[in-house]
Design goal:
The relative contact order is 0.12. It is built from 5 helices and 4 strands, in the order ββαβαβααα. Helix content is 49%, strand content 14%. It has a two-stranded antiparallel ribbon. Strands 3-4 form a two-stranded parallel ribbon. The longest helix has 22 residues. It has 166 residues and is an alpha+beta fold. It is globular and about 60 Å long.
């Protein structure tokens, strides 16, 4: 999950990347909310949040709901904005799907079911419950995540001090 922040500094609109965190859904659907709140606390901007833009994934809806329950300053659903690019993408896929040939859809569904069964039999940790490959940030020893976290740690302190004055 990438968390960016847009704010106004003088007359200019600024945008910064606050953090990138890997969220593992198997540990509970409230996990993204917990991670998001940690980032807001780190930058001391909980009371300054106006809106959150995210796609239409169910886990994002749950995240917004859990954040609304956990933060008195945050208004939950009223503060969620759907990403326009994702909405346009869904509409385009829906329109294009009307022109798909029936046998292609059946074949695609059959392949999808086959992948789901294979992942269940293998117990493959790199596949999600639907049989699609899940790529993580880290390699076997997690060094990629450690490197990214080290890089972000220094800039986070600098940005946190800048955001206090916004």
């Amino acid at each position: 999950m990438a968390v960016t922040c847009q704010y106004k500094k003088g007359s200019a609109l600024e945008e910064i990347l606050l953090d990138i965190v890997q969220v593992r859904q198997r540990h509970g659907k409230e996990n993204p909310a917990i991670e998001f709140i940690k980032i807001l606390e780190e930058f001391e901007i909980i009371e300054k949040i106006l809106l959150i833009t995210c796609n239409n994934a169910t886990n994002n809806n749950v995240m917004i709901e859990k954040m609304g329950e956990a933060l008195t300053e945050f208004q939950g659903d009223c503060s969620q904005v759907r990403c326009f690019a994702h909405v346009v993408n869904l509409v385009a896929k829906s329109v294009i799907a009307q022109f798909d040939l029936p046998h292609k859809n059946a074949n695609s569904a059959a392949n999808h079911e086959k992948r789901k069964k294979q992942s269940a039999v293998k117990g493959d940790d790199n596949l999600d419950k639907d049989g699609y490959e899940v790529s993580g940030w880290e390699n076997d020893n997690g060094s990629d995540v450690a490197i990214i976290n080290d890089i972000l740690a220094g800039s986070n302190r600098m940005l946190a001090s800048e955001l206090k004055d916004v």
